Amino acid sequence: MVQLDIIKEVKQSEVFSIIADETKDLQKKEQMSFVVRYYYNGTINESFLDFVNAEQLDAAGLSRLTIKCLEKHGLEYRSNLVGQGYDGTAVMSGKHSGVCTRIQEEAKYAFYKLHDFLSGSYVHTKWHDIQKEMYGGQPREMPSLIDTRWACRYSACRNMLDRLPAVYRVLQQIGQEKDGDRATDARGLLAQLDVSFIGVLVTFNKVLGQSKFLSDMLQSPSLDLAAAVTLVESLLDTLEQYRSEAYFEALWKEVEEMAVKCDLSLEKTEKRQPKMNTRLCDYIITAPSGERRVNKDDGESFKRHVYYPVLDSMAGELQRRFSKPNCKIMKGIQALHPQSVTFLQEEALFSFAKIFDSNVEDLSNELYQIKRVLDRKEKSGMQRLITLLEFVAFLEPFKEVFHELFRLCKIAVVIPVSSALCERSFSALALIKNHLRTTMGDARLSHLGVLSVESRRARSLDLDEFVRRFSSKRSNRRILLF
């Protein structure tokens, strides 16, 4: 019944987006998680739809699996599917033959968006003791990295930076012990923790701190793409500010202060320069052998060879994910946001409308009328609209009059900005298909997954209606106990 209610709401909404991701269960079977995003009853909904076993992991197989899932639930994807959300792998997001490209061939509107050493028992105890001695209070842990949880990387960098003097002290003490393997590992790690390492740690603590804010906001189911574009632009501006000389000087000062706390020498040491092969004198060397000559403990060298490349790489990746093919859609969505300076601007909206085959002439007339309606409502005392969702709710009573504009607004709010709900469904998968239930069938796993992920809907079910439906589908209404 929960799944039927979701499908009913999607059909009433007409336009929707599909979000998918995959993971392995305990039987090492690849399970695809499907989520639908749609507008219904004044709110944006992201609802879990299905777990489906993926036997083929190539683009063609996953495309067929996605279309089969939509057809199984009776969803009209050829004209109503307006968005796709996957992870960034080449199989899913490939430009020429990825899943998103293959599905768009069938549905032309379906556009694509885009520790260990300190955990040992002996070392862990010493790690806690030294923290209590140096800082007092509750000792911190070093979180392990999780592939599906980007936020843990920032947490690991922050904790490492805050407790770096304690880490040095732990490694120094263990390195002086007589335990051969453990002492060797400690001395090896200690040799890697130089000024350059502190520079990298401080850099990533700054950069990941800013990207974590964007990541958390993008994982909100109620976030619209206009807000996502604004957040990305803000992050790009921040990264550009980080490139200034003044900011780097402040960052390197922080690096030097941390190096002093860890008793590291800041004096430049002359290292033996390797002799250049005479055969390579007339060539530019791009191999790692040439990179080893750079002394990254020097601030200027660190800035050129580490700091700027990190910033440029992150900025380039953001610009790639929000690239030119998506610019028209982004600008169109931005023009539907009441707080945007381009709100209801014809040029941006017409380009957006043409992508989804809207009637531009009707849209032009609707834009003229809606501006007058909004102006009259605000003069009569109505509070100014703030979000795109508020604008959609305002248009809903007039959807027959402003048909094209209302359709574009619904498309704008259902385009996915992340696949976070798919990743959250993996937690339910691990709880449902545990070591005691490894023989569970795929159909049962999918149904239990719906009840678990959509638990709020399940708790609100009308049990009388549930019994009525159950009895109507069974010729023998008796409950057999054996």
From TrEMBL:
Q: Where is the DUF4371 domain?
A: 5-98
Domain of life, per lineage:
Eukaryota
The segment(s) forming the HAT C-terminal dimerisation domain are 387-454
Which N-terminal residues, if any, form the signal peptide?
none
Please give the SUPFAM superfamilies that the UniProt record associates with this protein: Ribonuclease H-like
PANTHER family assigned to the protein according to its UniProt record, in alphabetical order: OS05G0311600 PROTEIN, PTHR45749
Q: What is this protein called?
A: Zinc finger MYM-type protein 1
Source organism of this protein record:
Labeo rohita
